[in-house]
Specification:
210 residues; alpha/beta; four-stranded parallel sheet; 6 helices; 19% strand; globular
Length: 210
Amino acid sequence: MSLTKTILFPEIEKTIHAFDFETIAAERKIILQPLIDFIQHKVTNQQEVRLNLICTHNSRRSHLSQVWAQTAAAHFNIKNVFCYSGGTEATALFPMAAKTLEQSGFKIKTIAVGNNPIYAIKYSDNEHPIIGFSKTYDDDFNPQSEFAAILTCSQADGGCPFIAGAEMRIPITFEDPKAFDNTPQQAEKYQERSLQIATEMCYVFSQIKS
């Protein structure tokens, strides 16, 4: 196991260091445990860890989950983790989700504009950027086998009883910040959801023994 730890951008490090895993309710930890078990099994067997974070539109929660899971793996020095995201349909990565990540210290560059813009999302100077754009969960960009499907919204969980190629299907659902679009609480609620997802993904990777 490599001892070289990824250096995250300072603002992201500061955000992560402020997390208190005691704030995660016991019932949420039970929901997160199957994901911990999946990752631990892969790490113990020196296999690659592939996570496909899935929501209905691949526009908000699935992207926040993908980005924070990849960042958490880097922070806790868990190697060979590859995080993806997808939807039951493709729309666009919602600009407020990208802006919320920027406010937590991520560096985001728009590499293609249009109805479904493509973003490069960086959490560290020397790591590959996460490519953020809306796609279906079975898009060619995503793994086709040997991955865990993480359902981040109840609609996708209900609408995807079977996901081809997934070794495991794990519902970890989050409330949709979309409910607060075009309201005075929009920025606050997106930040709240992002930090909840970040705290839980960091908790998951903090439990992995390498």
